[in-house]
Amino acid sequence: MKRLTLTTLFVTICFFGSTYAQTNVIRGKIDMKLPNNPTPTIEVSLDQSFFNLFINFTLNLPEFSEYAEMIDGIYIQSYDKQSPDLKNMKNEFQKTLKTENWEQIVKVKDELYVSMLFDETPGVLNGIFISFTEKQNTTFVNIFGEIDFQKLGVLFAKIMETSPDFMKKIKIDANFANISDKKSE
């Protein structure tokens, strides 16, 4: 009788434990804390509590609060390019993306990777994962939530409408001289 009770208890705990673990997985969120990670030089973690606070401060700017409502979290980690195990980290992230059926949208050899996890609802993303390498750093960015592209476009148009100088303030730091030099060679 004790054996049957213990077996039943064990099966029940395993079943409910795995169900609980599956319901706590947030679609689009990548675990950025891999074992044996070097210490990041920059680490930013913005979770739902930050976005709730942001929404409260932007009540008079509905276009910003609507955007913030779509995002559940943003995690950014940047590492010195000379950090140990950086290649293993990149490989581990790529393996996770592949296992979870993320679609690679952009790949520039060893410099830039952009992957997206699409929702079953057309036009909705559950996650964006970006990995890019600059001269000194490699950075990983994970944005997750229920991001509606159409709604995002409408919100961006509203922002442009309220602040026409918005695009003038955006700066793109790129060295196009190197590209033209390579073409002429």
Largest sheet: 6 strands, antiparallel
- Give the helix/strand class: alpha+beta
- Poorly predicted spans: 1-23, 170-185
**Average pLDDT figure:** 75
The domain count comes to 1
Strand order of the largest sheet: 1-2-6-5-4-3
Percentage beta strand: 25-35%
Assign a percent range to the helix content. Answer: 40-55%
Number of helices: 7
Q: Cα-atom Rg, whole angstroms?
A: 21 Å
Total E-strand runs: 6
Question: In words, what does this structure look like?
Answer:
The structure is a single chain. The chain is 44% helix and 27% strand. With 185 residues, it is α+β, with helices and mostly antiparallel strands. Strands 1-2-6-5-4-3 form a six-stranded antiparallel beta sheet. A hairpin with a 5-residue loop joins strand 4 (112-118) and strand 5. The longest helix is centred in the first third of the chain and has 22 residues, at 2-23.
Short description, anyone?
The chain is of the alpha+beta class and 185 residues long. It has helices at residues 2-23, 48-57, 62-70, 86-99, 149-162, 166-169, 176-184, and strands spanning 42-46, 71-80, 103-108, 112-118, 124-133, 137-148.
Give the arrangement of secondary structure elements:
Layout (H helix, E strand, L loop, with lengths): L1 H22 L18 E5 L1 H10 L4 H9 E10 L5 H14 L3 E6 L3 E7 L5 E10 L3 E12 H14 L3 H4 L6 H9 L1
Helix pairs in contact: 2-3, 3-5
List keywords for this structure.
185 residues, 7 helices, 6-stranded antiparallel sheet, alpha+beta
